[in-house]
Amino acid sequence: xxxxxxxxxxxxxxxxxxxxxxxxxxxxxxxxxxxxxxxxxxxxxxxxxxxxxxxxxxxxxxxxxxxxxxxxxxxxxxxxxxxxxxxxxxxxxxxxxxxxxxxxxxxxxxxxxxxxxxxxxxxxxxxxxxxxxxxxxxxxxxxxxxxxxxxxxxxxxxxxxxxxxxxxxxxxxxxxxxxxxxxxxxxxxxxxxxxxxxxxxxxxxxxxxxxxxxxxxxxxxxxxxxxxxxxxxxxxxxxxxxxxxxxxxxxxxxxxxxxxxxxxxxxxxxxxxxxxxxxxxxxxxxxxxxxxxxxxxxxxxxxxxxxxxxxxxxxxxxxxxxxxxxxxxxxxxxxxxxxxxxxxxxxxxxxxxxxxxxxxxxxxxxxxxxxxxxxxxxxxxxxxxxxxxxxxxxxxxxxxxxxxxxxxxxxxxxxxx
Length: 417
Ligand SMILES: *Cc1c(COP(=O)(O)O)cnc(C)c1O
What we know:
By secondary structure, the protein is α/β, with parallel strands linked by helices.
């Protein structure tokens, strides 16, 4: 298909976009376990109306759009309060978890360089931590020591302690980590940072808008946020379980001095003073305003309601999987991330990727991950009402597999084209 020589009417263009969507996953029916997190009709409406208002606005320059400066300040403050940041806490909005993590890693490198004279920076990253940390290491030329997880899938903090050296600028924990959904021992990881002078980043891209509400709902939540001494920065994605449209995350620091290491300021070209809070230049106001609007619309009680529904869905999923011979849940996670794998103790051997294919045929989308081969579910409010049907289909799919093996052994957290 080539670019049209002559422009087409709006209705034509939109009709074609609608047609293109026919093969996309049906998240509106609660059939995806990831990618889209559905807060319900009123959340869609407030996001859509805010998005229309800010479709064209640009946060590159908040002198032109002071409203976007105020929106960012509000969202950052609210998030810091949820995560028990001190009054000194400071941060920025970014386009997503990856950008928040890139910024935090860069800040750790710059702090190590300026305060400790480190020229060959190094960071300690558990193998369960998100791939974005490795992307950051690649982009910013930082050496990584990847450490093992324990049998319960949490970071092996002894291995991390052994890996910390003179040039370590950052140690990483996750709350929770993505693959199995368990929360690392953040106090032990933060203690390593305190003892070595390194930063400690807690990746709460997934948990940032779940754990604070789970705690208020009376669920057990280990210490992980700014209440833990030594935690210097945290990432939390509003566009995941914060239920905002894509393009909204927050990176927070314990204070402005730590935050200053992520910013870039330049005043030596022909265009004038250039100050950059994150990795972007031109910066859409749309996701910022939509996130602000969703957070205002939901409020604490709205998030408590969505978190309660989410965790009940996840509990039902874990229980359902445990009741099926041949598959099991990896780890003892209690939040919204569930990894399902074959059960070596069972008589029946299940190929998880063949199971993934069978579920996809029934319209259910999971990430395929590993090692070990497993199907990942990020459960959210969007799955409410679909869980009974899902578990019915899961039982049938497992039964129908016999000894079928999928020829496709690839995993698919993210793709290129
Ligand atoms: C999603 C996620 C990220 C990356 O966030 P993006 O918004 O996809 O860039 C980082 N860490 C964890 C734990 C995540 O779940």
